[in-house]
């Protein structure tokens, strides 16, 4: 099972709302315990594209976030971004850019009044699975 720290989930929501109408982005970090994954911390990154349709992460911020993760003894669990005007599912571009089949891809949709957050696994053939998660 995948667990997400409630405060970290709220931070993703806050970031997406604050950066609306642009997509927001960041890293998911945490711990792997056998079959279980705990997302303990998010690392907010800047969308260099400032676009509502795609994002590019700042390489300097990415490097800094990975260093901070290592210092905190956390693992890279995945990344996340928002979809301001579309559903919480990987777009064609999201699938094309999914380079690592070992990580999770989080997508928060602000398309409707109630935000929708999902996690996805995308394999090398670009097949998509939606694992269940719990906010704790």
Automatic annotation (TrEMBL):
Taxonomy, superkingdom: Bacteria
Chloroplast among keywords: no
CDD domains in alphabetical order: MPN_like
UniProt xrefs under PROSITE patterns: MPN
Record-linked InterPro entries: JAB_dom_prok, JAMM/MPN+_dom, MPN, VirAsm_ModProt
Domain MPN: 2-136
Entry keyword set: Hydrolase, Metal-binding, Metalloprotease, Protease, Zinc
SMART domains (UniProt xref): JAB_MPN
UniProt cross-references to SUPFAM superfamilies, sorted A to Z: JAB1/MPN domain (SSF102712)
Keyword Zinc: yes
Signal peptide bounds: none
PANTHER family given in the database record: CYSO-CYSTEINE PEPTIDASE (PTHR34858:SF1)
Protein name according to UniProt: M67 family metallopeptidase
Biological source species: Clostridium lapidicellarium
